[in-house]
Amino acid sequence: MEHDSASRTERYKREAAEAAVDRFFLPGMCVGLGSGSTAAFAVRRLAALRAEGRLLDVSGVPTSRATEALAGELGVPLTTLEEHPTLDVTIDGADEVAPDLCVIKGGGGALLREKIVAQASRRVVIIADVTKLSPRLGTHGPVPVEVLPFGWHSQRRFLESLGARVVPRVLADGAAYLTDQGNRVLDCAWGPLDAPEVLASRLSARAGIVEHGLFLREATDLVVAGPRGVEHRARPS
Ligand SMILES: O=C[C@H](O)[C@H](O)[C@H](O)COP(=O)(O)O
């Protein structure tokens, strides 16, 4: 039963990713390649289209070392923000998606590069299976916060003073999890957030906090897949 629901979720992730690539990646584009299991399906779709001789002139900026490695393995051409400071579109996953297309990202630790790439993109398409939809951000899980290793205990106390239950992210062997930039991640559970924009600006103002997983303005579109098929939603104006 559990296995069935896990494989359904994987199918929905793949369907959302493939629909988004087919609709939003166009010939000649420079694109952002997101991170995580859903975004990996998008990279695979782009590689499959290339194998059919389509989108051969599309190049991508990867949002993590893992995505860079996957794209490299599959022969997807990569570029950089130095070469292409503005990207046409980024397709990326999310951990939680609210009805206004505000999202939480960073479950895989790629939030900083993902936000840099999203903010350099004209359009940001979030791809998700239905389990990611949430009535209010914070309902499903924590907000990942990336902090410099220097003085990180002081960031932990600061986050607790804002009401979070803070769990420093660790690897299976108990060692500290480090991001691609060598920073720590503190997973901060606040529960459903009444005013995510107020929280986001307090986090952004704190020295030592490098970035947080609240993406409140970046997403322009959502492609979500579930038992009723694949649906596209544009950000409400
Ligand atoms: O840091 C990771 C990213 O923000 C992912 O896009 C997010 O965690 C969703 O990952 P997945 O598609 O594996 O659920």
Question: Could you walk me through the main structural features you see in this protein, from its secondary elements to its overall organization?
Answer:
With 237 residues, the chain is an alpha/beta fold. It is globular and about 55 Å long. A six-stranded mixed β-sheet has the order 2-1-3-6-12-13. A four-stranded antiparallel β-sheet has the order 8-9-7-10. The protein has a three-stranded antiparallel β-sheet with strand order 4-5-11, with helices on one face. The protein has two domains: 2-134 and 216-226, Rossmann fold, CATH 3.40.50.1360; 143-211, ACT domain (Alpha-Beta Plaits, 2-Layer Sandwich), CATH 3.30.70.260. The longest helix has 23 residues, at 2-24. Helix content is 32%, strand content 25%. Bound molecules: ribose-5-phosphate. Ribose-5-phosphate is lined by residues 34-39, 92-95, 105-111, 114. Keywords: Isomerase. The active site is at 114 (proton acceptor). Belongs to the ribose 5-phosphate isomerase family.
